[in-house]
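Sequence in, structure out.
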Amino acid sequence: MRAGKATASGTARAGKATAKGAQKVGKATRRLTYANGADRTGLGRLIELSAGNSASDAVVTVALASTVFFGVPVGEARGSVALYLVITMLPFALLAPFVGPILDRFRSGRRYVMAGTLFGRGLLCFAMAAAVGPGDLPTLFIGALGVLVLSKAYNVSRAAIMPNVLPADITLVSANARVALFTLVAAGAAVPIGAGMTAWLGSAAVLRIAMVAFLLLGVAAVRLPRHVDSPDLEEEGAQPSRWRTLLKVGPAVAEAVWANVAIRVFSGFLLFFLLFLVQDKAVPWLAVNQAWAQDPFFDIPKTIALLAAAAGLGGLLGAAVANWTRNHAPQLIVLVTLAVTVVTTIATAVFFGLWTALAISLVTAFAQELGKLALDAIVQREIGEEVRSSTFGVVEAVLQLAWVSGGLIGLVLSLTQSSQAGLITLAVALTAALGWLLVARRKRVRATKAKLARQRAEAGEHDRQQAEAETDEQDPRWPQANDHDPRHAGTDDHDQRRGDTLDSTKPLTNPFG
């Protein structure tokens, strides 16, 4: 009885301490999310909603990963993952032209669109939970696809409404970075929790918990401030919005998109390439034939955990650097991230090992996060609100297709079980992409400078001709105008013409001019 009482009292004290700690963490988090006027504009509530959305997506990913990646042998996992990637890619290619315009037509109800994406994912989690027990892979694939599409739709809506909740003291890049920081932290905290719950309760129970979380988040989305929605104002004579393509978004947006496409291709490639190399023990620190020479610490699960931790740290660093570089040019940031990825990939291909693999995972996640935040700022700045969702829809679809394509390339090249062959191939492709973007940017800058010079020359010629005309009118050989000289009776009209620029009925802009 004494032991039972001591255990109960200890458990109660531990629970109270945990509750107090959670309350303190919640208050500190609320102060950070509501700083700089974010509480008045609704940005703080949007950050909390996005953090919950990211955490729930992470839990679903962990629950599905235990069934797709580690629940089947390596050879079967390659086929399942390839099927999943193909199923993921095709609907995005078909739905990309329609998602954005549909969201643009519901600008006055973006809160309900976001809530609909959350409610839909909750229902899909319920369906996937029922399919886990009998091992219904088609239902799992279709449900995972639906969760991915609805997650992208939520991200498109969230990015489109960011200018509506932007406080006066925060820039777009800083606001995007703040959202990214909290979403990454929430996802990073949810991954170990989801893994522990999956090991304890099973994937089906975790998916049902995620269903409840998505439904509660949908209610929170409906309760966002009303000014999140934009009025559907039809301008007089305005043309209906067209399908957004990369040929219609302007050179600045297109350049940032193609740079992010190259980074996403490499990100998808690196994820699946390293994953299956590690599972096949085709990496130097796991490929030792003698058991006595193998490092007992760096086994397959610990290696995957280290690579995942490096990628998570890289994403956090990317969001932090984006907040720090809020006053710098986003176009330059995008190109610099691609250049850093190219250099790191070449170094990893030459000196491949555990530490270089961790470095390339960190740098790739860093470049992906920083480049995407810079791209979001460019789109929010360059694209009007009437077609902003369409543009974000096309951008998200293109980036998703690039990531899937990179993942398929990584699956194919992992069959060679040669780390250098795959990394050298992608290093050459990334170098070519960076060179093409730099050459295109140089040509565009030269064309812009030539156009400005031509316009200045035309303006100078016009000013010279006007000056010559005024000089002819003010020929010094003319006699001075005299009111008493009848020969100069028309000079008053000339003086009146010279004084046309001074209208006595309007105030002077510069009274001393």
